[in-house]
Design brief:
homodimer; 352 residues; alpha+beta; Phosphoribosyl-aminoimidazole Synthetase, Chain A, domain 2; seven-stranded mixed beta sheet; four-stranded mixed beta sheet; 8 helices; PurM-like_N_sf (chains A, B)
Chain lengths: 352, 352
């Protein structure tokens, strides 16, 4: 158990694979951490080398925000992204949706025995690149290994901490009758990009995932209108726009009416969904936000979103109303009305 | 996809099982969150109901500490604990080992399709109880579901945030030659308790896991000696005492010499390890800490540890010395010396 090898060879990052030793907490774990994780994420916080990171607190007067997300997407690589970048974007976005500035990320990796190191390196580098691009460092982490057949390549749980400016109260419960509902771009791109790779559904598309960090877009939006005019921000991930709006309606004890003709949906996404018998309103997005804003601020907010590269196709898609049952409804293109319920029935598993 | 059921029955927490719908982000996900997670963890932060939690910041002048840990222990239930309590203790302890006060936890659950809801409820309740006992609430969370055979019951990644008092510098790099090494109790209890249940190793023992939150013990220790006298605190989990001391020696660029006769090890643990050809120095602990303290503070520190219920069997087990190669060595009971290397060779998988 305690034989000291004379010489430790570097990991074979091209042809090597994860084995149970990499999760045992000994020399092999240390080597994996140093040659794969620390090499990619390198920053002063990680370099402290303890089991926790010491971090500067948020600026005086600011509150803390904390969000966590497990990522189990299958396949690990998809058009427009991979699980590594997604794990950064998903958690940065959850922090940003309260109007907070994301500061730090932690990452917990659960690896399956047999995972090619080349895949892990590709994922970790992509994650590090997304973290650098977002300006939110991965400051601490953990790695576990499970036996082949007890996991599925890589799962990544990321947690984010952010700083909340004093007096900011953005949340799902803040929408009020009369408010306007905006969305920052086309719906369903991520869901269709991932589904296009699933064995049972394989079809051809050039649609890419919209996976992106939205804190810059949120900052631009908030700078464009008075404090308090943005009531709710939320990223419509699993369950899509329909589930997100139902959550907001429920939290705010209001109704929401959508305008079908105003929904930005790519023709290719619409076609793919029709082919598969799916509805773009329930398809996951990973780089879009829903904003509920005060009516008098709606024009300025929409203009600010459209002026940002991640919001060029933003649209005004609905309004908040009074509804004791908190229903989400849609005015259809043909002048009718239909319910837009929570996702129920067949799920689209492991879309994030 | 959007059919509104007339009536949602409550989850069958006795006979029900996790299915893919529980991870899809729609109504079934919401029901699982409300009837299992929110019901158990209930607190003002979780009740905010957004994808992130708004939290009071650490007290003025304090720094932040962040730690994360994935938990993949098998089996999920073991003598003295379960994966739920362990997930709280492991992360609380990582925060506490920097001398910080743990404030908040997040939890990411990765569930395998088919998991009995009764098992999940038992785990979540145990986790909630551990969280309440520690005074560290679970303020936000996430749940994903993977197909049967792509996970293993439950994995839980917890992240902790703590407040670090100004001027506190406890860490793996702070040990200095002359310092004294203390341990807060018997070694290897957790590892032996878990191994006793493994199919291939089944043997009888009454040993229970030592799984416990150590922040109270740390507070008692720190109150007993001047600031700066405690150099390093670390919980010897995966890889056991041997790996932890090698980490400290490496980070502090020093050597460590252990005194075998001083190591507190239960006779049952010693016997079980002998039977299995294992060494208690490499067995995981989940409720013990190693403290490296200034020599002049060692007696007071040991007395403070022993006065606490979680440190009654604390012992002085070694000293820090000068060693350019950062070796950990042991004076054996028979007057010899042997190297205590990093864990290498056969690992003990999924011990935490």
């Amino acid at each position: 158990m305690a034989i000291k090898p004379d010489y430790i060879r570097p990991l074979d990052l091209r042809h090597g694979r994860i084995d149970m030793n990499h999760g045992a907490g000994g020399r092999a774990s240390l080597q994996l951490i140093e040659e794969v994780f620390a090499a990619a994420f390198d920053n002063d916080f990680l370099r402290q080398g303890d089991d926790a990171a010491r971090l500067p607190p948020p600026p005086p007067g600011h509150g803390l925000v904390m969000a966590t997300d497990g990522h189990v997407i299958s396949p690990l690589f998809f058009p427009g992204g991979d699980i590594g970048a997604l794990a950064v974007h998903g958690t940065v976005n959850d922090v940003a949706m309260l109007g907070a500035t994301p500061l730090y990320l932690s990452a917990s990796f659960i690896l399956e025995e047999g995972l090619p190191l080349a895949d892990l390196v590709r994922i970790v580098r992509s994650m590090a690149e997304a973290s650098r691009a977002a300006g939110v460092p991965v400051v601490t982490g953990d790695t576990k290994v499970v036996e082949q057949g007890k996991g599925d390549g890589v799962f990544i749980a990321t947690t984010g901490i952010g700083a909340l400016p004093p007096g900011r109260r953005i949340g799902g419960a803040q929408a009020r009758p009369g408010d306007v509902v905006l969305v920052s771009g086309t719906l369903g791109d991520h869901g269709v990009a991932v589904l296009s790779l699933r064995e049972s559904l394989a079809f051809e598309t050039t649609i890419e995932s919209d996976s992106a960090a939205l804190h810059g877009l949120v900052a631009a939006l908030l700078a464009s209108v008075p404090e308090g005019a943005v009531r709710t921000l939320r990223d419509p991930t699993r369950g899509g726009l329909a589930s997100t709006l139902n959550e907001i309606a429920r939290q705010s004890r209001a109704g929401i009416t959508l305008d079908e003709a105003a929904l930005p949906i790519r023709a290719q996404v619409e076609a793919a969904c029709e082919l598969l018998g799916l509805d773009p309103l329930y398809m996951a997005n990973e780089g879009k936000l829903v904003a509920v804003v005060a009516p008098e601020a709606a024009d300025a907010a929409l203009a600010a979103l459209r002026a940002h590269p991640l919001g060029a196709q933003s649209a005004r898609i609905g309004t908040v109303g009074v509804d004791a049952q908190h229903f989400v409804q849609m005015r259809t293109r043909f002048g009718g009305r239909r319910m837009v319920d929570w996702l129920s029935g067949e799920p689209l598993p492991r879309i994030c």
